[in-house]
Amino acid sequence: MSKSTHRIYPDGTPVQPLYTEAPLQQPGFREEPWWTMVQEHHVEHEFQANDWALERLKQGASGLLFYLTEEHYLPRILRDIQLPYINLGLVVEGIGTAVMEALLHHAHVEIHPVDKLQGYINIDPVKIAARTGYWCEEKMYDLGELSRLTPPQFKFMCCNANFYGSCGASAVTQLGLAAAHLDFFLDNFGSVGYTQYWLALNAGTHPFEEMAKIRSARLLWKKLLEEYDLPHVPLTIYSETATTHQTAFDLHSNLLRATSSGFGAIVGGADQVQLRPYNSVITWSDSEGERLALNQHFMLAYESHLDQVSDPSAGSYFIEHKTADLVESALQYLQDIRQQGGIIEALKSGTIQDRIAHEVAAAQPSEVLGVNLYGLEGETLPEGYVPRAPMTRVEHQAKYQEAEFEPLQPIRWAAAVELERIQHTSKS
Q: Read out DSSP for 43-103?
């Protein structure tokens, strides 16, 4: 029998045809077989956001994620919501302490036990730096203040590694940067807030790789705690299906992509999972898309019965080997970043940007289902929607030449192919 097949993972490593043993490892799993079913909302008007939240809860969502600024009046958004019974996520562009104080005040007024509040707040200075090209050290003080304010069941030490996945990073690179991200916080804060860390990971369309990736993240966290001589505590992992793999043509094929991604994240052990609506690439809010996204959760839970099995991939030789390989490669990349002075210095030097740009160039597909592969004849894009032309790296660097360093660029794999199709159609 051949020792390898022609099948490879997205990072180029071969898929082995037969595994007869597995390394001994205990990555852990979420505490319960079920997972939090998350839906998100970009807040523009508080009362509208409240209506949206109540409707999503009525339809079965167990987690709500709000994108807001400190100016938003939180009690209006959370009116009539029983906070102890849901998982609440808050993504904050402004001052996180102000938002946390508003949440605590609201819980006091509504007589919600503060120690029963569950969820997370997203204040991530490293991700902000990677997105903007500026390192804002003052945001680190926000995290220090949040350690004083945040209830014990609420997570505030955020490692937003899903952003690297949204920029086209491979599984190894995403994990290595996640480890470097966590390492940066542990090095700066030590034991402060270490029980309240949470990690966000991007879920791709290769379900077995996603299973191994999430398992690998838990093993990396365990190794980091051992290095810092800290008692082990579980790491809360949030996973979302990003728009990276979505298409604007043949929108309903995105339902299949999200289901495949979600399956990998759930079986891998993510605590919270967001399946983005099939049409989120063209609209941020759509009741039909959000309803179908929840139904995908329900199908995986109540019809496929994934909510009744703890760690279904445990013991699989294939998954265990893939997990071990990802951990080894991610640790090597972590050491490389440490030698550069840590993740912030690596961003400033441009080595992270170079690595991700190389991976994006290597992984860019020439054919995309529903676009130029088995596309629907005569299909047009929604009126007013035009795919954003992906910038070359030279164009991107020129745009941000005034920044402290080059920010990472989110990508959508189908964008270039969609533009080619539009241009070809217009010429015809």
A: -SSHHHHHHHHHHHHHTT--EEEEEE-TTS-HHHHTTT--GGGSEEEEEESS-HHHHHHHH
